[in-house]
Structure formats: C-alpha cells, structure tokens
Amino acid sequence: MIKYLVSFLICAALIIGGCSKSDTNPVTGGTDNSDIPADPTGVTAPTTIVNNIQPTATFQVTSGNTSRIKLNLTGLVNPTTNQPITLSAQSNFWLSEDGKVKGLKLTKVSTSNVLKADIVFTVDISGSMGAEADAIASSIIAFSQALVASGLDVQFGVVGYYGDVEGAINLTSATNIQTFLNRSTGTSRSVGFSGADSAALQTAASTYASGHSSTAENGVVGILFANSNFTWRSGAQRIFINFTDESTQPSSMTAWSTATLGSTIGGTATVHTVWSGAADTANAYTWTDLVNERPWDMSWRTGGTVVLVNSDASNLTLSTLPVAGALSNSYLVEFLTSDPNVTHTVIITVKENSADGKKTYSIKYQ
Asked: What is the distance between the alpha carbons of residues 157 and 174, in angstroms, rounded to a whole number?
C-alpha cells in the first residue's frame, strides 16, 4: 500500500490553484514565456482510430501572464496494457487552438506543488450489494485517510443510489466521510443525508430522477446528481468511483443513459468503475441500450478505468485501483494562446499504438 501512497504523493504537483508560484512563470517568474516551445510548422494532429481513451482537462489562465494557458490534465491509462501513458508533445500528444497545433510544455506531477482533487464515491445500495457493502465502506475510509496523510489537497463525497438518490454527503473531509459511513452497517451506510446542506440535498434528491424506476440500479443517476449539486472546487480534478454489481438500468429513459452521462461530463470528469458482479461478465446480462447497459461503459466514455473484484469485495483495496496510476501520471500542460479574451476551439489528441482518443472544447479561458 505504501507504494501506491507514494504514487499519490508524487501526483501532488499539478500547479492548478495550489502553488505559491502558480501566478508566474515557474522557471523565470513574471511574463517571460521563453520556456514554452514555439508553435510547430507543418504539423497536424493524427486521426484517431481506436478511440478507447478520452482526455480530461481543466483550463486556467496564469494570473499576471494571461497569454500563458495551463491545463490540469488527468492522467490516462492505456486500457489494453492497463499502464499509464507517458505523454510527449508532438509525439503522442497534440493540442490545437482554432486549427493551429501549439508548442507545448508538459510537466509531469512532482512533489513541489499540490494537486487539488475532488473525489466522489457513488455506491449502489440495492439488496444484492449486501455482501460487499461493509468492505466497500471500510476501503473508502482507509483510502480517504491515506490520501489525507499523504499530503494531498483532497475532498471526498458520497452518494448512495438505488433507482433514486437515497443518501449523500457533499464534498468534505475524510473524517466526516468516516462518520457518515459508520452511522450504520451494510447497504444502509450510504442511506440518508448529512452535512450542513443535508436538507437542501435531500430536497434536490426527492425530485432529481423523476420518472426513473425506483428499483433500477443506475450509477448515472448518482453521478449526475453529484455533478449538479455538489460544491466542486475551481481547478480540482473531478473524479467519480462507482461501485455496483449490476448493469446500468436507465428505465428506457435517455436522460439517465450512459450516453447522456458521457455527453454531460466527458472531458471534465472521469468515472472509475468497481464491479463486484458476475464473474462471467460477458454473459452476465443481455446488454441492451436504455435497459441493461454495461456499467464499465461509463468509464470508457469518460476516460476512466475499470477493476473487477470478488462478489464480497474481499479483495478490494482502493489504493491499488488503476485510478491511482492515472492520478500519479497527471500533467501540467502549458501553451501560449493567440488571444485570452475570446472563445476558442481547442482539440486535445492522444495517440499511441493500442490507444488513442481526442476531446474538443469550446472554451474562453477567462
């Protein structure tokens, strides 16, 4: 476990919102941008073919140096090899602004700066989760405490769902998450609302998934609820870890489908899946859009990772999830914009032999 805590500590360096020098050029200070390579000529980003990964980034203007744009780029894991992707500008990573490939400075995370991460655990609380519910709660508590001890600037939230949102606590400390999960046992651990805004969350949850079956497991409901109602910090990576043993069941409603989840949060948040369902996943269900959708497709559509655990989650240790590798392989990406005051079309492309993907953003940096 120490190995993975070190990985998380290594990822503490992304500058977004956390470093005393984040308002200046990290090398020279002030507005000297000589450390950023010039825009290349005659270079175009390659066409993606596999499309099995998706970049996720937060954009920010450097204070006092508005032409210098920085990205908090969540680390990517190659789903074929299950290994983090090491990025190299104009080799396997390209960024274009309004059709022009930009010169890039890529800095992998290190211990000299602090990473902000907001992590929400969405937990299926249906009856079939009874065998693993206590193990999941214990692992969440240990994971959150370990991250705090490692020095990361991190907050945690929880959503319990079973058709509707049945419980939640907004982004808060590891201590408050422990108290929330230890109020009860089994699947009841994630039932009920806690925190200073518990009444508002309960009111929001009472009508949030109107029309969706109250007995259909669907992590999309819990994730979109948190995405809309939780207090996310500026510059923090948005990370969801979804626990379930069932298919995603939208009750024939497009609003609660995996496709809608991808179009809503793709490029701004990642979903990592922990599956404790049937070992023979290929034949566990008749997979049908809007009825029984693959739960790991939420990860595929958002650039997250997937892990399969025992039906009682006895082998679950969150610190060894692929998400740990992703976080520890995050990057600060810096480039010079042509104009910080207008809306741009920015395309991020990642491509290597067995993994590629791209994301298009229409964004005004400030």
From this structure: 9
Predicted TM-score (pTM) of the model is: 0.82
At 30 the pLDDT is 65
Structural domain spans, the chain: 49-109+332-366, 116-326
Over residues 72-116, the pLDDT tens digits come to 888 888 988 888 899 999 999 999 999 999 999 998 876 665 678
Per-residue pLDDT at 282 = 62
DSSP assigned state of 291: T
Give the E-state strand segments of the chain in sequence order. 57-62, 65-73, 77-78, 83-84, 93-97, 100-101, 105-108, 116-124, 153-162, 164-172, 192-194, 237-244, 269-275, 306-308, 331-336, 344-352, 355-363
CA gap 14, 99 in Å, rounded: 27
pLDDT of residue 328: 72
Q: What are phi and psi of 62, to 5 degrees?
A: -75, 120
Domain 116-326 in this protein, CATH class:
alpha beta
Cα separations (Å) of 100 from 41, 49, 96? 9, 21, 5
Pick the CATH number of 49-109+332-366 from 1.10.1060, 2.60.40, 3.30.420, 3.40.1350: 2.60.40
